[in-house]
């Protein structure tokens, strides 16, 4: 259910992408309601809050309360469905009898108009009954109104999460039982969890000592200075396939050799002068050894902790199948400009990883290594701005010109979640995780 909440808005945007005039208002209300609930849910997951986040949470909840009535009809119970069907049947019989008595005085055109009017009247009465009897007055909806005030008192609302109890049942009981010999299992479960708890406390103590810059070594009483600065881990290319030339890379990924050479020359021109450049001559460039990889490990800060990182693993299999399925070439965020440019995305672009490679300049004494990614970049359709209704930016392939680019793996900042919308169009989902929600949306 937790993962569904992060995908439902993008899926709903795709399903309701082409409403007619009669449903346009209802579709917009549904998208606004779901987007506001997603915003509130992700904002509530923040581990620390400010007055601004309190205001945001209250604003998102007010928007959700104002638009949630669009889903009232789906709150109907079986008894309510039976009651509305009975009322509709009785009203249909009354209207049919009245229409039969007046049939001799009405023309065929007027009778058809009368049938349409009766159908509309029955639908309105059914909707009024549903809205009058249905409600969202249940305990989980009541909890939401207290989240903002509880954040002000307790700083975080992780205590509301039901995942804590579920994970505790697995870690404290199921894992311990599986590791026991099933003989007096309760005693072994308690012992195993006690050892696990003691080791956890020990690891946290060592981490605190490391952060303060001093740590005790063994029982000797010696102290060793350590570095308290935390630097971001490097991006890593993993799962090397083979070593060859650029021509072999093109054949493996079914890319035109002239196109990739043109992009390589463009990349070389943009390389800083103090970096060991690759040769700009096509013949020399084609002779350099190229290592191919199928995975890029990208460190992403675990918001809001600046010194804790998660790893996004962008895979790129080219045309080969992945795990007995189709080819897998993940979508990523690429930094293509300055943060003050390109609208709401602030210089970011969504691209698909087609090839990962490492090229070593063997013709220079101080051989430089370039870790590169070949990515086709998508172009924003709605002026690179998040729509107020759904919050999803639409992207599409360029109809003219090449969209292929070669960038250093340092420009790839994380994985992106996109959903196919129409032909040559995609929808960006900014609610897939806290990092995307905070840094991009």
Tell me about this structure.
This protein is an alpha+beta fold. Helix content is 44%, strand content 20%. The protein is built from twelve helices and 16 strands. It has helices at residues 2-15, 24-44, 51-67, 78-101, 108-133, 139-154, 163-179, 185-212, 246-253, 257-270, 282-286, 434-439; strands at residues 214-217, 222-225, 236-244, 290-301, 309-321, 327-329, 331-335, 348-352, 355-360, 369-376, 379-380, 394-396, 404-408, 412-415, 418-420, 425-428. Strands 3, 4, 5, 6, 9, 10 and 13 form a seven-stranded antiparallel β-sheet that branches. A four-stranded antiparallel β-sheet has the order 11-12-16-15, covered by helices on one side.
Report the strand count.
16
Terminus-to-terminus distance: 22 Å
Average pLDDT number: 77
User: Would you identify the regions where 5 or more consecutive residues have pLDDT less than 50?
Assistant: 217-229
The value of Rg in angstroms is 30 Å
Largest sheet: 7 strands, antiparallel
- Note the overall shape: extended
Total of domains = 4
DSSP helical segment count: 12
Strand content of the residues, in percent? Answer: 15-25%
Describe the structure concisely.
44% of the residues lie in helices and 20% in strands. It is α+β, with helices and mostly antiparallel strands and 441 residues long. The protein folds into four domains: 96 residues, no CATH class; 57 residues; 63 residues, no CATH class; 204 residues, no CATH class.
